[in-house]
Predict the 3D structure of the following.
Amino acid sequence: MNVKMQYVNVYKYYRNTKVLNKFNLEIYDGEFLVILGPSGTGKTTLLRVTAGIEDLTAGKILMEGRDISKNPPNKRDIAMVFQNYALYPNMTAFQNIAFPLKMAKKSKGEIKRKVEEIAETLKIAEVLQKNVTLLSGGQKQRVALARALVRDPKIFLLDEPLSNLDARVRVVARSELKKIQKELGHTFVYVTHDQSEAGSLADRVAVLRNGGIEQIGTYEELLNEPKSTWVGDFIGDYPMNFTSGEYVGRSGTIIGFRDSWVNMDSDTLTGTVQLCTLGEDTYHVQCRLGNAAVAEGGFSLDDIDESEMTQPTNNFVKSSVSIRVSEKYNIGARIKFGLSKYNVYDSNGNLIETVKN
Ligand SMILES: Nc1ncnc2c1ncn2[C@@H]1O[C@H](COP(=O)(O)OP(=O)(O)OP(=O)(O)O)[C@@H](O)[C@H]1O
Ligand SMILES: [Mg+2]
């Protein structure tokens, strides 16, 4: 795979805020790369330094092997869709979308054809002649997207480009976007908060944390084998379940597992059904890892201390898990279950191993 763009030891500090801190990443040609991360982790900043709207504090950005870090924005051949649209307010939607083509001195006929084609795809054909200030947030967002997509730059940077569309329009726009990207072989760096979007669009997902990449891989990889409890907690519709205790004689370990890995037919683990906290099918199961040495491949539980049950200590609460089970259990019932798969983390939350039964 050819590397399209590369970040080499990139730093971006604002006074005391270290937004990017020795950031390194390679983006492949034709890749759909999604950037995920909590609010304020520097996703927008990453796109802004890439587009050249902000200077780097240190480091280099290479495009097709050439250092572009010092180039002004218009010499980078990058199209960006901004989080806040950044449309030209006294122009119509048509004029906004046509703007980059006009700058590139395309013929009137070609401009009209391209603008109408992309407007059709993004379902904004009927508002092309309106001034953009009169459009809804979702329409503005699609105009901004269209204005980027009529170009053929080396790379596209998209900052939550579908966030203002209602759910149905978003799903359609999403699949259109993916189609355009793959058909034209575009390279996308795409920021989103929407994990289902990340899951359906991304070739790879990069999770941003503390100024660097915490983990990069397919969405499935992040979901199933998060390198840290932090990623396990962050990725997925629901956080991964964590329970701490002793594992194979090693104290202070953390076991992480997804609900779908819980096997109710097995009896390696014992728990007590507690409050129903997360919706109809969700029962809070408290369990605790035993201190006994664990047999190969599996682990066993000590019985639950009944006194702790009625007056849970902080410690105990920490080692509780929430499992979404389809069967209905009465609160207080003792249940047995096993795990088809689990991840073992050290006390710092770093993955030691993934175990499959
Ligand atoms: N111009 C600026 N001056 C000073 N600090 C800034 C500036 N721009 C951003 N920051 C800070 O840098 C950090 C990263 O901001 P950024 O906008 O990149 O986050 P983000 O990941 O895009 O967040 P969100 O998901 O909310 O859009 C934040 O702490 C923010 O306050
Ligand atoms: Mg942002």
Remarks:
- Residues 12 and 56 are 5 Å apart (CA to CA).
- DSSP finds ten helices and 19 strands in the chain.
- The pocket of adenosine-5'-triphosphate (ligand 1) is lined by residues 14, 17, 19, 37, 39-45, 83 (CB under 6 Å).
